[in-house]
Amino acid sequence: ASIEKGNYRHYMQKEIFEQPTVVAQTLSSYLRQADETVALPQIDFDLSTVNRITIVACGTSYYAAMVAKYWFEQFARVPVDLDFASEFRYREPVLEEGGLALFISQSGETADTLAALRHCKAEGQTIGVVVNVPTSSMAREADLLLPTHAGPEIGVASTKAFTCQLAVLAALASHLAVKKGRMDRSEEQEVVKHLLEAPACLNAALDHDDDIASMAHLIAPARDVLYLGRGPDFPLALEGALKLKEISYIHAEGYASGEMKHGPIALIDEEVPVIVLAPSGPLFEKTVSNMHEVRARGGQVVLISDRAGIEEAGEGCIATIEMPQVHPLIAPLVYAVPVQLLAYHVACVKGTDVDQPRNLAKSVTVE
Ligand code: G6P
Question: Where in the cell is it found (predicted)?
Fold first, then answer.
C-alpha cells in the first residue's frame, strides 16, 4: 500500500508530504524517548576510538553528508573528509588506521559509492552505511548498519530519503559526541528534545505548500536561479539547486552566501531569482548584507526564513516563505521542505515529468 500514489498527483509530492511520518519513524529507532538518550541500533563497535571519518556519497546523499560534516566536527570534534564517490578512489585518499568510513545512499546500490565502500573495506576501515534499502549490497557489506526508515522512494529525485538520512546523521553525530566526552548528559537531552521536535516542524513547513505553489509562477520563467545558504544550510542551497535542475530543467546554482561576491554576483540582474535560505541566528546579519548586495544589482530575492528573519529582512523581497522557528540542529531538515516543494511546483508549472525526469535514473549502477 505504501507505494500507491493515493490522493497525490505525483510520487514525489507524496514522498515530500510523508516526511513528518518517516522522519519520526527513523528517529524512533535512534532515540530513546524515556531517558532522552541517543541509542544506535545493533552497535557492537566502540565509537570512542574513532578519530577521523571519511564520508562518501553521490547526489542528494552527498549533500546529506555535507551537512553531517558540520555536525560531526561541531559536536564531536572529529575531523571529516568528504568526497563524491566518483572522485574518491582516484585521488588516493589517506585512510588512517582506526578510521570510520561512512557511505550514504538511498538505494544502497549506486555503483561509485559501492566501489568506494569496497576500496575502504580492503584498506581496513570500519564500514558504516546509512541506507534506505535494508536488503541492498551496501547494507550487506556494512560493519555498522544505520538504516533510514523512509520506506520505498519512487520519485527519481530524492526527498524523504534525504531528511531521514539527516535524522540518522544527527543522531550519530550526537552519539559520537557523547562517546567522545564532548557532550554531557544534559546537552544530550537537549539534542534529543530538539530532534523529537523535527516532525512537527516539518509539518509546519509543509503548511506553506500553497504559498510555495503560487510563488512557483515567479520562478518558472527564469533561465537561471541562484540559491544561497550558510553553515549547515549551505548544503541545502546546493540541494535546492539540484532539485530544481533535476525536475524543472532550469539552470540553478547553490552557493555559500559569503562566496557569492567571488563570482556568481556577476550573473545577477532583474532576471535572476535568488533564493536565500536563512534561519535567524548569529550569522543572519551577514546573510542580510549578502541579500543587499544582490538587491543593489536588481536581483529578485526570495527569502526563506522564520518570522524574526522575515521581519528583519523581508522588505524588498519578491516573496518570503515563513518557516517555523527551529533549533539550528534541525534547520537543515526543515528547510529541505520549501526547496523540495519549490522545485516540485515549478516543475508542475512547466509541465515536466516530475517522477521520471529526462536522462536521470533512480539508482545509477554504472561507474
Ligand atoms: C541518482 C538519483 C538521485 C540520488 C543519487 C544517489 O542520481 O537520481 O536522486 O541522490 O542517485 O543515489 P543513492 O541511492 O546512492 O542515494
Answer: Cytoplasm
Instruction: Report DSSP letters for 200-247, one per residue.
Output: HHHHHHHTTHHHHHHHHHHHTT-SEEEEEE-GGGHHHHHHHHHHHHHH
Residues forming beta bridges with residue 255, ordered by sequence position? 228
ipTM of the complex: 0.97
Residue with the three cell numbers 526570495: 302
pTM above 0.90, yes or no: yes
Q: Does ligand 1 come within 6 angstroms of the Cβ of 340? A: no
162 CB-contact burial (10 Å; exposed 0-12 / middle 13-18 / buried 19+): buried
Cell output for 36: 532522552
Which residues on adjacent β-strands are paired with residue 109?
Answer: none
Residue with CA at minimum distance from ligand 1 atom 5: 59
Rounded to an integer, what is the distance from CA 165 to the centroid of its chain? 8
Q: Which atom of ligand 1 has the smallest separation from the CA of 57? A: 15
**pLDDT lower than 70: segments of the chain:** 1-2, 42-44
| CA nearest neighbour of 31 among 144, 150, 174 | 174
Beta strand 144-147 pairing with 53-57: unpaired
Grid cell digits, residue 12? 514525489
Q: 32 pairs with which residues across the strands? A: 37
Strand partners, 251: 224
DSSP structural state of residue 135: T
Q: Which residues contact 244 (CB under 8 A, 6 or more apart)?
A: 219, 225, 227, 250, 252, 342, 343, 346
Per the listing, cell 539550528 goes with 328
Question: Model confidence over 240-252: pLDDT tens digits?
Answer: 999 999 999 999 9
Cβ of residue 105 lying under 6 Å from some atom of ligand 1: yes
Ligand 1 near 154 CB (within 6 A): no
State whether residue 103 is helix, strand or coil: strand
